[in-house]
Amino acid sequence: MASSFPTYPLQQTADLAPVLDAIGDARVVLLGEASHGTHEYYTWRAALSKRLIQEKGFQFIAVEGDWPDCFAVNAAIKQEEVSYSSAAQLLQTFDRWPTWMWGNWEIAALVDWLHRHNLSKPAEQRVGFYGLDVYSLWESLQAVLQYVEKQGDGAVTAARRAFSCFEPYSTDPQEYARAVAFVSEDCQDEVTAVLKALRTQTLQRPATNLPERELAFGAEQNALVAVNAERYYKAMLRGGGASWNVRDEHMMETLTRLLDLHGPDSKAIIWAHNTHIGDARFTDMRREDMVNIGQLAREQLGRDKVFSVGFGSYQGSVIAGKSWGAPLETMAVPAATRGSWEHQLHSQLSGDNALLLSSELRQIDSLSKAQGHRAIGVVYRPQFEQFGNYVPSVIPERYDAFLFFDKTQALHPLDIHPTEKGPPDLYPWGE
């Protein structure tokens, strides 16, 4: 059955040419995913990222992951020599649930590629890998304390005071949030003091090159994570959309800081779920006054400087847990519900994969109205999918392009595919 949508074939890396042309001179490219556990989303984001780096000079990838863990990967891929036994071993640093999001063979292959790419570049031009998320309160505090104690500077006192303030709650920030929910005393002033001390230090002793600036930037970013994580966990306890906004505003603040770090002509690639990168104003999130990095980037940088790519599939398999913290499982993803965006594409594309550009989709009247668009999180129960896994979306406005895969397979977590067995065949379609 012929497609009623203008589409482009999507079988090999060369087929990404139309979206690269559409990206043009955009400064920020946001690459989504409809789940956190689908193989094709990771491999095709990697394929597109490589072309953006090689052909358009993009300087870093920033992902929906914790800053300390990602910064360890960033440091490793910028070294002259391989400072880790294997990329798979390096990714063991991602030990907080859901470990599979970044501890997988697909990311291991990307890490190896980034290191090889960086070997041919001077230190100032090496591509980075950073985390945008806000969850790592305790880990970020530990990283700040280690940094300032090694530096022996004036921020030591503030860092130790903040560390002591959180120490009674062990490594559980949610326990902290519950403890301070009904009292006037919390640790907000302590983490803010650390951030101020590090910023003062940076002004007094500015670094002279990017690698040195990056180390100082990393410490300051950990302090910023601690500040915003303290806010996030308290907001999460109160419920509503406030905690979501704290999180995505932190992502945008981090992106802005990274762009500033890399200079006025810097270009960034973002990897995050569709619910983060697709403009929230064109979903039902708007009714709840929720924002996301896709919306904020367009507002703050200009729509012509931001290009967002949504991802989705009709059916297949996925890695997820049945509840928060539950063991990861390979789960079947049922056929998309009738009338959804994915169901329409499946029906009209006769089971083929496709690339679609929003500039062309906007000419179709039926797509100017919101329709269900599947979103699977780290927690997933396929039997209940139709009751809560479809986000009403105006697709051509939410994204600038869309990559559709008719049938997908589950991600390859390191936990399921141990390192001693070697990597699976990740690119049967040819990288």
Automatic annotation (TrEMBL):
Gene3D superfamilies found in the cross-reference section: Biosynthetic Protein domain, EreA-like (biosynthetic domain), EreA-like, domain 2
One example of a Gene Ontology biological process annotation: response to antibiotic
UniProt protein name: Erythromycin esterase homolog
InterPro entries in UniProt: Emycin_Estase, Hydrolase/PRTase-associated, UCP036794_erythomycin
UniProt cross-references to Pfam families, sorted A to Z: Erythro_esteras
Origin: domain of life: Bacteria
